[in-house]
Each structure stands twice: as structure tokens, then as C-alpha cells.
Amino acid sequence: MTLYCNGSTEAKVTYRFDGQPAKVLNFKNCCPIEVNTGFAGYQNYNSGGFQLTFYSPNNGRIVQYTVRGYSITNGVITMVGCDGTTQNTGIDPNTLVIDSSVKCNNTVTAKQFIEVKYQGNRLFYDEQEGNISYTVGCGGECPEGFMRCECDTYPGYSCIPCNSLQSEVAAIKNSVSELIK
Hints:
Layout: E1 2-4, E2 10-17, E3 23-28, E4 33-39, E5 44-56, E6 61-73, E7 76-81, E8 86-90, E9 97-99, E10 111-118, E11 121-129, E12 132-138, E13 146-150, E14 157-161, H1 162-180
Antiparallel strand pairs: 1-4, 2-3, 2-12, 4-10, 5-6, 5-9, 6-7, 7-8, 10-11, 13-14
């Protein structure tokens, strides 16, 4: 859980999933916002996998599973196996041992999510396959590493990444230098 824009009245979240265009969310009068990201549907997930060892009251013995992810709710563990199938069984959570050296034989792309909350209430949620990245600007300002440019579309400005702007200026400078030689 990360809080942003404490003491501000506006927040602007720009996020994107791999291979997708960026999306912009504007929030007014609901700050600070909480932004959470992770793997959709599981408290713990790793696309490479890991091994779980625990006592299962259903089986009356210690069991082992190699999985990609799991969630535990009310003494029941829901696991997603290396092949993507899910399985439920009882668990004594105090006996859970995770071995991250054991991996699945193949990797998969998992769904990740972004969630924006205000005072514990969900304002926005999105999930898609691929990694997610996001930035947050507060009070009508752009996030660190971005420059504010006025425009005619809502909310009246856009944020341009400084590093891409620097690259474009350098390319123009080189072009001009070549022309004057």
C-alpha cells in the first residue's frame, strides 16, 4: 500500500500494461489516494513458481505442491498449479513452508492489477496480462521526471516524460549541427 497526494485535492494516475497505451485517471477531492498493484487473484504469485509444504487436515498429513500462486482464506488454500489449474484444500497456515528454489518447468504471463482507493473504498480497478507501471502527480502537477504542457483536452494539461523530450532535443541539435557544417 502506497499513499500519494496527502494534503492535496487532486491526483493524476498514469498507468500502462506492457504493450498497451498509457491510460490517465484524474481524481478530485479524494486525496490522499492509495495505489496498489500486484498479481490478480492471489495474495502470493510468481510466474516461475515455487514449492509449498504444509499440513493438510483434509489429507491428515504433510503435503507438497509446486505452484505459481496461492491465497489462504478461513483455513482453505487456493493454489494455481504450474499448468494453470486451481486446486483447494485445507491448510494449517502455521505449518506453511515456501521453497523458492523449486520452479515450474515453464513460465506464463500472469494478470496483474492496479487499484486506486480513497479511505479504504475502491475508486478504480483494472487487470490485464503483462507488467504494470504507473506514476502519480498531485495538485495539478506532473509526477517527478515529467514536464507539464498545457493543452485543450481535459484536464487542461498533459505530462510529457523528460527523458524522451531530452532525446528529441538532442536529435534536433545533432540535425542542426549537421546542417551548419
